[in-house]
Fold each of these.
Amino acid sequence: MASRSIRFLVVMLGSGLVLLACSFTGRTSSPLDDQIGTSVAGTVTAALAAGGTAMATPVVERTAAPTPGPATDSSAAPRIVFTDGDRNLWADAGAEPSVQLVDSMDVDTFRLSPDGRQVVYLRSADFSEYSLWVVQTDGSGRRELISSAQLDGMTSAPEALGALPYQMEWIDAGNTLAFNTSLRFDGPGLVLQDDLWLLDIAGGAVEPLLAPGSGGQFYYSPDGAQIALVRPDSISLIDAGGGNRRDSVLTYEPVLTYSEYAFYAEPAWAPDSSYLRVVIPPPAQLDEPTPPSDLWQIPADGSAATRLTRLTPAPLVLPVLSPDGSRLAYLKRMGEVAENRYELRILEIDADVDSVYVSGGVSLGAWSPDSMGLAIYDNGASNLLVGQVGSAPLTVSDSQFPRGIRWLDAENFVFFTLSDAGWDLRQGSSAGGSRVLEGIPNGSAEYYLPQVDVRS
């Protein structure tokens, strides 16, 4: 193991391994949310409804990437937004009481801007019709950005009931929202259109950067100049303006998920934006003996990808690259399948050092923004622990049955715990303590679990 000290966040849960949990990136960006969908190829067949931007052509080539807006002082802006048991939206700045931002009792998913001053949120009262809104984190300026009729005009499949934003990411210093869409049908399943749209938050203009079938799950480079586009069988690159497309810089066989969605790989950019790294599982992970997965490096200039190493992680649990792509956390099965025992291993990729951090009935979580912290779920208990490699972890106080853990920075994180009334939103630190930020009673939204988003 490398000598550098690495912080980890360890979450102890009840029995039962959480399979596939780390393969996804949720619409609210939670690292443990299900974010995988099937792809839909095709062309855009309808223009946006009245009030939207008509699509004269399905693909737009910008002359340049979005221009960053002026810097703002965000020191006093909220770092945490969350929903309550009635699907209302709140902001917590830390020093003052939480501010209710939305009281419509219909918030589905949401994203906090990088400067903490505004939140985009998806509304749906019946989980059938959706619309996209924005609100300032002081509670002012609530307005609709994309209507239900406009969203339904984005569908590429005549048999679909409509479309809704799926992956949503702030770009351009919080002036623009990039998003792709999924299709709505009667019945189960998740169908992504593999498109890409840009929404000007201030002006409200919606621009189709990539038509259905030509986009995918998207990952902007740290410098904002390039986008990695992930499909169920390939990864491509384009400039942020939509030009200089480098198709299929890596191709792979579609990976079985044994469910009603397709597998999408999850690359991580290098800090200098010069390359990406990505883990590709075998097509049939449940084969015995377990087939190996491949770790690839993809140059940003479109030249040939290089396989860095092969490893054999536990089936159906995707290894998790750190945000800077320098480390890989993965589970390796111990003993027989029925024993449900695993060892969590950390691979220092450039040093080629692979070591065991903890063993037992563990499952994976998420890296912290500085690529040093890691959330880990263990089936053997139900406490939240914070530790460092080489030393025993500390138990975070009052952390029974945690969920929704999100890192604020290298030292602090927020999470939900069960309470007698419903849920508590708590903030913990690497020193081992935690405090209640907000008590959230169970509300009228049956089976609804509160959500949280943070700015790091």
Note: The chain is about 0% helix and 40% strand.
Amino acid sequence: MANTSSTPRVGAPQVVDPRYLGRPVHRLAEVAQRLHDDLERSWVQPFNRHHRAALSLDGLRFGAVQPRPGRWTAYAAEDGRLQFMLDRSAALCVLGYRYGLSREQLPPACDPTQVGETSTEERLVRQLGRQWLAVLLARCRDGLEGAVPASAAQPEGLGGCPAPAQGWQLDFELQDADSGVRGRGAFVLDAFWMERLFKWLEPMRRSRGREQRDAARPFPHRLGLTLTARLLQQDMPLGRLLDLRPGEVLPVRLGATDVLIDDARLFTATVAERQGKLCLTSFQDAE
């Protein structure tokens, strides 16, 4: 009898961005869910009532930027930069409802292979990008508990741009239940806005009650010192360093980590992960 067993397939390893080690990445799903509710309340439901449509937003999720063909638009807000894209089928569906097309007329009118691009469609996508990004940025500023204002300040449009190569991407799907038309889209946030997002996602480190209890402890237990963990040190030839290009990956392996106070090396420790945070464990006196 022939052996029909096969070797299990192993997926590609997930690439970890070292800039976000120890950050509350696991809470981005809460942001996506809250943003879904914000957009449904501020744009989808009013649009459906006014145009008798059945649009809905689904599948909102954060992840690393993935190459996605399409028409990307750039925006500026404060010191950050954002990008937005929406498949033509979804954009044409929104445009069709604005022009009063029926659900039976929408599918052929939303076929990108049959309908040429127009400046009206381009303006619509830019307008949607400004409106939807304003809601996202309001959520970044106000946190999960804050109420997004009805008229959030909109980012400044910068025009068309190439597909993004870095940042964090928030994917979504816009679909119409009546006509069956659907299309995908994405927001991209740069490092400035992701830093603001992570800042208020981080939980409070110390509670007020704990601070009062600490005040009664002996002085050596209240004296605070800043420990610095040197996670990685990599040596390479100057020529190799000059040859590096954006997007390249340097294979590294974490070993024992040096723990310092100022420039004094006091301990070595092992890096571990617990509930989405990096921790130091197995301390040893430095020789």
Note: The helical segments are 28-51, 88-98, 106-109, 119-142, 191-201, 208-215, 219-222, 238-242.
Amino acid sequence: MKQILILLTAIQCISILTNAQTAEDSVKAVVNQLFVAMKNTDASMLKDAFADSAVLQTIRRKPDGTFFVHSERVSDFASQIGMAKKDSLDERITFETVKIDGPLAVVWTPYKFYYAGKFSHCGVNSFQLVRINGHWKIQFLIDTRRRQGCE
């Protein structure tokens, strides 16, 4: 009987610790997973952060100063990341905004990107995440890129 009581107490403690992570922490963990995967050039880990139907886009500037939206498949992005040298891709983000409503999350992360230890550019990432089968996945990611105003 004593062993059963100890076992039940242990299970309850594990349950409390597992549920201690907030929804916001879970969302941030998936976003961080993307950047850890980039740094480690782990294409599989990177793809796992995204939903199957994810959209990946970048707002770019043409030489004439006008903007356009460039779309990329997650599989192509993951392949590029997988070919990079480990630790050469270092995107440093800050979580400015995280909003959650049930299975939908919005995340805004200003960033600075370093390639092979040298500053390359900065901008903002805008994420839309969805909770699918109990797991947060990136459904939509669009970012800006610039070299000026990167204090």
Note: The chain has a mean pLDDT of 90.
